[in-house]
Structure formats: structure tokens, C-alpha cells
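Per your request, structure below.
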């Protein structure tokens, strides 16, 4: 993602604000997408002028910046990836195509992958993100990242992420982070994950 006229902007939501209910309701979209995400973008835009990262891509800033610039760039990229990877709930939602084959190859089955991903999301202490990424050979890995962390800092290609900051689930799920994580499988748009996997360098 590149800045336009020196500023980054949130991507538009590819669905209506109530389309993800009851997994994520319209009030969560209003606050999480509308206010939390916007604040990270605004803080990033405020910090860029005069920094060595002016005019650079968001991915390059996330890979190389430190401190507040990194925190707000990381949260901008993380939230863009998070909100763009969802669609309306589907029962029995599961990956197809090459990403489905890679998940079965590297985790044994989709169910084993889900169990490890949920456990790593539920077990992350404090705020952060659980990620599915691909390494340079296309092998898949699940990693935990604290706060604004993103696997691009480790040379990985991020494919799928679940936000485990409390602001992501408190309106719909209160303190029940594991229930929120389990429900998110219904709204993952696997065609987006497949496209990220296909586009890796
Ligand atoms: Mn968030």
C-alpha cells in the first residue's frame, strides 16, 4: 500500500457494516474499523512528514521502522489485512484450492490447523495478533505477534490474521476470546487468503 498525496487511507470495507453479524456486529465495525483503525492511520500520517519513511510503502515502513512509527504502521497494515479477509458468515466455511492443499500438507488437516491457530490466539498474553504466513519456500507457519507485530518483520509473507486485542471482541463476545476466535472461522474469505498465497514473491 502506497500513500496518496503523502497520506495513507483505510481501504473501503468490501461488505456492509452489519454483514458479518452475529460473529462481528455493526457496533464492532463502527468502533473497531471506524475508530480504532482510523486512529492508527491518523497517527501514522501525523508521524510521517520529515521521517526517513516519507513516501515509502506501508509494507516497507512496517518491515523497517521502530517506535511509534512502527506501532502505527503495523496496526494500519494489520487492520487492513484483517478487515479485508472477511465475508458474510457461512456454515462449514473452509479453504479451497492451493491454500487448502498447503494447510493439509503442513498441519495434517484443516481441523488441526484451526486447533493450533486458535490455541496460539487464545494463549497470547496481552494484546497482539495470531498469523498464518508462508516462508520463502511456501511452507506455512503459525506465529504469535505482540502488540503491532507483523510477520513481514521476520521475512514471512502474511496470509491470514486474527486480532486478539480486547477491542476486537469485547462488544460481541465480552471477555470470551476463545469463543470469538472460534466464531471467526465462519467469516474468513478464503479466496482472499488464496490470493495472498498466490501473490507471494
Ligand atoms: Mn484491532
Amino acid at each position: 500500500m502506497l500513500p496518496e498525496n503523502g497520506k495513507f487511507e483505510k481501504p473501503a470495507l468490501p461488505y456492509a457494516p452489519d454483514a458479518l453479524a452475529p460473529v462481528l456486529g455493526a457496533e464492532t465495525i463502527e468502533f473497531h474499523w471506524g475508530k480504532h483503525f482510523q486512529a492508527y492511520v491518523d497517527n501514522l500520517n501525523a508521524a510521517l512528514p520529515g521521517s526517513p519513511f516519507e513516501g515509502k510503502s506501508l509494507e516497507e515502513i512496517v518491515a523497517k521502522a521502530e517506535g511509534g512509527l512502527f506501532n502505527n504502521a503495523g496496526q494500519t497494515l494489520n487492520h487492513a489485512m484483517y478487515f479485508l479477509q472477511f465475508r458474510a458468515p457461512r456454515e462449514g466455511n473452509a479453504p479451497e484450492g492451493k491454500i487448502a492443499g498447503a494447510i493439509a500438507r503442513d498441519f495434517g488437516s484443516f481441523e488441526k490447523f484451526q486447533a493450533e491457530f486458535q490455541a496460539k490466539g487464545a494463549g497470547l498474553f496481552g494484546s497482539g495478533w495470531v498469523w498464518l504466513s508462508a516462508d520463502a519456500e511456501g511452507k506455512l507457519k503459525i506465529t504469535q505477534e505482540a502488540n503491532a507485530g507483523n510477520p513481514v518483520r521476520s521475512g514471512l509473507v502474511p496470509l491470514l490474521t486474527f486480532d486478539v486485542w480486547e477491542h476486537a471482541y469485547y462488544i460481541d463476545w465480552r471477555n470470551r476470546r476463545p469463543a470469538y476466535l472460534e466464531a471467526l472461522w465462519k467469516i474468513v474469505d478464503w479466496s482472499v487468503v488464496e490470493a495472498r498465497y498466490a501473490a507471494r514473491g
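The CA atoms of residues 24 and 90 lie 13 Å apart.

Regards,
D.
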